[in-house]
Amino acid sequence: MDNIEANTYLSQFIGKNLRIHTSDDRVFGGQMKCTDKDRNIILALTYEYRAPPLEEIKKVVEASGTSSATVNWSSRYVGLVVVPGTHVKKIEYEESAYSKGGVVL
Amino acid sequence: MAEDRLGHATTCEDHITPIVNHDGTGASQEVRPAEKRLSAGLPLRQAMKPPLAEPKTYDITEKFTKACSALEVGQLVKDEYFTLFESIGALEIMDPKMDSGFLQPGETLEDAYDTLAPILPEELISILDQLLCHEIAWHTGYPLSQTLFTSVYIDKLLWPEPKTFEQAQFYRGEISDDRRPGLLLEVLRAYCLALVKCCDFTIARITSRDYFEEEDFCTHTYNRVLLVQTPMDVFQRELDAAIERLEDHSEMDIEASLRGALIARLKFRKRFLSALDIDFPIDYIRHCWEQVSRKLPTISTTHQLGKVVPESFSFKIQRRLASTVPPRPIVELEFKDAFEKLQQLCIDCDEATRFVDIEPDPLEYQSFLWAFASRTPTPLPYSRAYLASLLFQESSLNIPLIDLRSLVLPCSPVLDPTNWALSPPRNPMLPKPPRLQLALFIDEFVERAGQCYLDLWTALGQNRCRLRRMLTHVVTGWDQLQMDAGIVDEDIMRVVTEMGIREQVLEYPLTTWVYHKKLWMIEKVVLLGFEQDIYLHDEFAGMYLFLSSVTGRRRDLLTTIKAHFDDRKRMFLSQNTPEALTNAQETDDGTRYISSLLHDASGISALSSALSKFYTKLNYLNLLPRPTRPFSTEDLRYELRMKPFLTLTPPEVYPFADFAAQVQPYAPPFFDSPPPSFSEALRTPESWLEIEDSVKRAKEEFSAVKKLGAKAAKSDSVAISWVKDVQGVLASCVALGVAVAGVKAAVEEGEEGRELGIRFEIPGIGIGKRYAEGWVVGKVVKS
């Protein structure tokens, strides 16, 4: 992939929703604003999502008696964040239900 | 409010709703990110109801990474509207200093503190007191995230957000009976709920008035809802029930002193809550703060009974608050300090309630506001908002009109109420009756002046430092108003000339009124500058010179007004009808106010002129420290100081050449050795006589103000602090006299060309060494 291709490819995600999984297993969902060679990614209007601890899942499952019980993820608004490239584990593009297409994956 | 519940069915990895963008304070949403890492080895089943409008997610990690590595070093792919400046504000994830969600290796997200574990009465006392400390710390400007929201108990009550009031417990859902909270925990719950409602009321009150977010006060609630919907009586009922259960000795055996301490805290909270209530009926407002104050001493005396439970407050709760700022430590405010602040809050609010009883007169209001803003220690944002909400409630007073009448139009035909009773002619082509025209002109002007008046009062409701800065902006608004007043004045003068009553009306009354107010504000800005140590010592001469020139103008204006009042009185007396006699009496009463203002202005002018001349001499004598200023020039510095006033018309600021001629009369530069002309002047008695005369005159004028009294100065409502102020200025006059004599003696004794053997000490601010904070008078000390 040459520089121009890379630029074109990355530019299409600007303003689109990305979910970035970090090395400590949190997920950050927000609008991509900026990225660079080191894969640092700036997200705007971001929410942080954190999985409930295992003990809590166990507790809920035991309490409800069904194994398909719903355990709530905790989430909160964190606004504008920069996720350093070294901590990015996985990047997901979220296709908006309202404006499909336009992005070549 | 947003309640971002992440319902995650352990089975479902494909059912994902989009992450809806919003600003973090908006409405609820359901979000389910695609994650399957929760499958704790459990049999999986499809979720019952897949949400609508499924978005798809695509893993783009690999290609994204490849594309990134193809970029040049330093090359950015970015939104063209996204600036470097904005990016500075971004929180860096995984950086422990920035990322409040970052966990150290092995660290758990939450503390293991059990909010249902039974507590001792001693521990409860301590928790309640600690909550109070946090509440007060919040009142002084810290955010909730560093204060009250660090309490595990409050967190449990408010999150997850209770759907009903009954759900606001230290637990959620069903619990076994043996886990049910006991009496003490129920007491704590009642207290915490009332406390949360207090916060809700506080925020409502402060945001209803002008305040500066994060500077004065933080209203951010981090998506927690402070029981906004629940009416106040519910909280009162909870508190009452808790008090009743505590008083019932059969329920639990508690030591009497501890029981008393707990009951006192609940009763305090009950009073405090009702005093903070935004809908508190104004007719009963007079004693509500006093009642709070009365509950305070017991809290203070029983504080030492407590036994601290530090684990009930946790730094970690910030991790779960919607927050766009880095994590910050818990604020530690000592109980003693918090208690003092609380006492002050009650006293200030109690003082503010006196506002409802003062005479409905804008000038009395103004004095009251000024005195309130001058209180030391400075009233907290809540107290200021409290007074402001009393001030700005619906009032039928025509504020600018009453002020106008008091200053420039005593018993004037221009403001005759019958003017407003006339109807315009049916035929719009015919001219309106002149009296009606006058009424219309005044209406027009009063409406125009309303906003300026409001701005002035808003500024008076701020803290002292902001008051000074805001006043400089208010002055420019009044400057505009003065131009508009000029136009209306032309019309008024034309009509009164036509009516043949020109001699009954002050020349250009509206302009005079606006100009007087404007000059008064400029004076206050300069005096506040001294009060807040804005000016350096070697600038004192120049700033007092400016003050003296501004006040001189105001004095001249008042002299004209006073003459008009005297004319009017004489005119009424000569008519000798009962009505005219009443008017004469009324005008006479009005004259007392004008006289008080005139004496005050003359005094300020004389005193500032004396200080200016005195400090000029001290500059030449090298008795004031002069910092080196390698990067600026005298005229640029002067321009900067005068910046707020440069645009005013008529110009109030001396051109630099004139200014320099007055503050450096003996040929600059004088830095190292005073010029010969100065040494000569020093030894002539006239140069000192001028200063001594000014001081004497100032003293006489201020004495006259004092003799006329607070009522004449329209400061009757704040008579005590008014008298203190006037005495402070008088004492400053005396101190200046002493200082002048000291320097003079040293100069006379000293030989020419030798050191004087004295030092000059300038008292600092806020240490009680100045008789009046705005009047900086130094002291001569033998060195």
Automatic annotation (TrEMBL), chain A:
Sm domain boundaries: 9-91
Entry GO CC: NatC complex
Ranges in coiled-coil conformation: none
Lineage top rank: taxon: Eukaryota
InterPro entries, A to Z: LSM_dom_sf, LSMD1_Sm, Sm_dom_euk/arc, snRNP_SmB/NAA38-like
PANTHER family associated with the record: N-ALPHA-ACETYLTRANSFERASE 38, NATC AUXILIARY SUBUNIT (PTHR10701:SF5), SMALL NUCLEAR RIBONUCLEOPROTEIN-ASSOCIATED PROTEIN B AND N (PTHR10701)
Name used for this protein in its record: Sm domain-containing protein
From TrEMBL, chain B:
Localization terms from the record: Cytoplasm
GO cellular component, one term: NatC complex
Source taxon at top rank: Eukaryota
InterPro entries per UniProt: NAA35-like_N (IPR057983), Naa35_N (IPR007244), TPR_NAA35 (IPR057982)
Transmembrane segments: none
Pfam families, A to Z: Mak10, TPR_NAA35
Annotated NAA35-like TPR repeats domain residues: 367-706
Keywords: Cytoplasm
Ranges where the NAA35-like N-terminal domain occurs: 74-233
Family assignment from sequence similarity: Belongs to the MAK10 family.
Name of the protein: Amino-acid N-acetyltransferas-like protein subunit Mak10
Organism in which the protein naturally occurs: Lophiotrema nucula
